[in-house]
User: Fold this.
Amino acid sequence: MMQNDTAFQATQHRLTQLEKVVCGLRRELAPQAFADHVQGYMLEIQRMREEIDSYLLRPLTASCVEGTAQV
Assistant:
């Protein structure tokens, strides 16, 4: 569970990296091989998106902002 914006940003970065991997596999693999190979990636992407949504829907508190870098 994400506790602050730093963890949020790190999760966003990891999510982007996984999506790039899946996109690359989509171009490289045959449809059935793609479906077989990306199932685990897709489950992790879904989990990370749910974690991000949960974090964003929580009320903002001082503890959530600690460690936040200026964007």
